[in-house]
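For reproducibility, we list the full input for the 2-(butylsulfanyl)adenosine complex.
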Amino acid sequence: MNPQDRVEFLRNEVTRHIDLYFAQNAPEISDSEYDRLFQELLDLEKQFPDLVTPDSPTHRIGAPPTKGFESHKHQIPMLSLDNAFSLDELNSFDERLHRALELDGDLEYFLELKYDGLSLSLTYEDSVLKTAATRGDGREGEVVTANAKTVRGIPLRLKHPIPGTFEVRGEVLMYKDVFEKLNAERAERGEQVFANPRNAAAGGMRQLDSRLTAARKLTFMAYSQGVGESIASSQSDLLQKLRELGFQSSEISSRCGGIQEVLRQIERIQSLRDTLPFGIDGVVVKLNEFALQRQAGMTTRGPRWAIAYKFAAEQAFTRLNSIFSQVGRTGVVTPVADLEPVVVGGVTVTRATLHNYEDLERRNVREGDTVIVQRAGDVIPEVVGAVLEKRPSGSVEPNPPKNCPECDSPLVKDAGGVFLRCPNKACPAQISAKIIHFASRLAMDIEGLGEKQVQRFLELELIRDVASIYSLHLRSKDLIELDRMGEQSVANLLQAIEGSKSRPLDRFLFALGIRFVGDRTARDLARTFRNIGEFRKANYEALIAVPDIGPRTASEIEQWLEDPANQSLIDGLLGAGVAPAEPDSPRGDYFAGQIIVFTGKLERFSRDAAEEMVISLGGKAAGSVSKNTTLVVAGPGAGSKLAKAQELNIPVMDEEQFLGSLPEGLQLG
Ligand code: IVH
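The corresponding predicted structure, in tokenized form, follows.
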């Protein structure tokens, strides 16, 4: 084959495999085979520079730096959207449209995710990407074509020919897992971390060296058409056609038969928010039919036919008043920020974690700083970083403590060197944290024994350690005499303590407060060892064989079990009558030998129910994908686990397929 034909062949092959891998999740060749094709194309293009075309996939790795960005005038301005912050405002939007269109009856809407990134305009000439431009001020943006060519989901050539000029608009964003990795690497190198994926994506698109953009692994989601003949008659039709041309958009979008359905779908999307692999800051509600859109018209600000419904922001700025140290149940000393109260994600936050002292130093946060606070879902609020321009003069770097703030013992550095730890097992802060954890909802769930009560009982020496909870009944007279603890509430508390004795084994293992053993790991341990006698004999080999338990956790548990104080804690609890309930035995062997991972949002059944079923039928349910995984069941919003499964060629099913694969008589949901 002559070089020209070979280059053309390789260009098409590589483009096809990129599409199969990223857009269709169905790779046909291994990563290394792909790398070989790509390298051959690179080599040939280097040897015959004349053969390089603007749509060559080799542009995806970036090109050497340019001096600056040229400006680009948008033929059709890139406007913004009106915002709605309440469901009432959405109802008003719907009423306004009814009036403007002089229509009764339900209007059809298209509900789309509001991607949290930066908007980008892509102009194709005769199907080949010519110009990519940022939004800029809406009328004029910057040309970032070389950068855009490195972004996933931007076809360099449309999959079907479209003659003439054709403009597509959408959002460039960074996936959450890519962001976490990028920030971890930056922190490792002592560089300032990004506050959020949007900033990292925006910074990525403005790199003069497109190889740096490529390294940010950005993704493009298409949402509208600009210049060019319209290819669709409605928004739902447009997204479908854009997919056929090689663009991506989220599958979570939906057509809604009226505003009531929009409101219901918004609730669903809100509940999916944390499971999505990328950030969204709301949803966009669009009138679906283009004919009706044209009739509704525009204002100077933006279209009348669309509105953005904004979700509660997950980040906010506030003042960090002071940094104090908190001692956890395993003795780890954590810096905590005391904040000027601020609403984040719909909740008022006054404290946020600063993780550990090394991290605090990397994040360069000081008392008095204006800081970015972040809270997503149920996660503990954290301080992301400081706004350095607003740093008050004379502020000082925080010093890690040398001694325990509670018992004054000299602190020691952990083996990993990251955490500071109070080595004193009798440290009152550790004891109270252990007891609070033991009684907490996901552990032994002892109602009436919360943080305040534990502190009070410790001060009054009614309890002294975890096991002593089970002797509280001997002190019922003292308890009744305490203010605010009438006879009834004492009786309730003692009953709750008694009731906790027969909690399932997994809760008991979680309650022990072993480092790295969260409720999920505790469940895995309980399923494997089945009773406390077997668990307490476990060694490293037995522990590492448990699905989902890695070397760090296995050795932490082994060390914990080797400590005589912990063995006598277990003895004390068993002696006091605690008898953890064994998990149910398998009822069959349908899933024997299988290790199944459920990921994404499951809508037809709960993850717990599915995992229970797999286990009760002899299989294993794991939380992470490895080469041993036999099946991944993925719902909407599945991200890195699904990607990993594809990388490892592990079979993937959606919920429907999984339900369909079950033998008759087996039901879920
Ligand atoms: S449609 C006339 N759809 O939100 C503007 N915009 O506040 C029509 N955005 O500048 C835009 N996701 O950057 C549209 N699914 C989506 C979007 C979306 C994010 C951004 C876009 C726009 C801003 C408007």
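The mean pLDDT is 91. Residues 54 and 128 are 7 Å apart (CA to CA). Both points were considered when choosing residues for closer inspection.
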